[in-house]
Amino acid sequence: MLNSTIKENSNIKKENELYIVKRETLKVKLMNKNIKLILQILEDSESFSYFKEFYLDSLENLKIIMSLLNHNCLRIRIKALCVLYYFFSDIDSRNGKITNVLLMNKQNFEKYFDKFLNDPDVDSEMLEKANFILYQLERLQNNI
Fold it and tell me: What's the pTM value of the predicted model, to 2 decimals?
């Protein structure tokens, strides 16, 4: 009787662990698809100006993208970097709240990109975007 109870508890624990793994995998897939959709909209020149006002001028969206830079999935980090790149493109037209948050996190970005730039899985296009972001941060700070 005791052995069967232990075995049942063990099976329940395994099922719970499997559920958690499946749920986390699904969350990663959904995040990946959402970021991919955002990038497709940003890269579409016809919708860019509207989406720029709607998405890129939002402090909340910037915070979400910045948090995704630390995700454990490399693909999500790379796509978050691509979206972040758009926050830095045309930086002079961003509202003051956005530029303040970007500047306040300058050191965090520098530390992050120091590790990112040395990652062998990061391709040259991502390196260019990271360097562009670092350049824009310097330029932004020098204009204060």
Answer: 0.78
